[in-house]
Design a protein that fits this description.
It is built from no helices and eleven strands.
Length: about 120
């Protein structure tokens, strides 16, 4: 089955950087899209960034555009999210998601989250 493992979160000061990783298994890597979502206390889970592993198409939420970069490493079956210029409002649990068909936020397979905390 599809399995996803998110890692790399931590505590960082505003303006700092983190790279989080999503290690995947159980599916043909290039047939899927991978997305990063985040969930802050009291808020709905929201999409942050996504990458199509078939054609390389990439998207970002407006709130992170220009600061975050999503990338993939096929040899490692891993998707990364490089987060620069972090802001306190980026504080959330970050989840990775895998899907091979379009769908709403709650579609696809999910990994456990990794906590990102940005101090002011």
């Amino acid at each position: 089955e599809v399995q996803l493992q998110a890692s790399g979160g931590g505590l960082v000061q505003a303006g700092g950087s983190l790279r989080i990783s999503c290690l995947t298994s159980g599916f043909t890597f290039e047939d899927y899209g991978i997305g990063w979502f985040r969930e802050a206390p009291g808020k709905e889970r929201e999409g942050v960034s996504c990458i199509s592993l078939s054609d390389g198409n990439i998207g970002y939420a407006d709130s992170v555009k220009g600061r975050f970069t999503i990338s993939s490493d096929k040899a490692k079956n891993t998707v990364y999210l490089q987060m620069n210029s972090l802001k306190p409002e980026d504080t959330a649990v970050y989840f990775c998601n895998a899907r091979n068909t379009p769908g709403p936020t709650n579609s696809g397979s999910w990994g456990q989250g990794t906590q990102v905390t940005v101090s002011s």
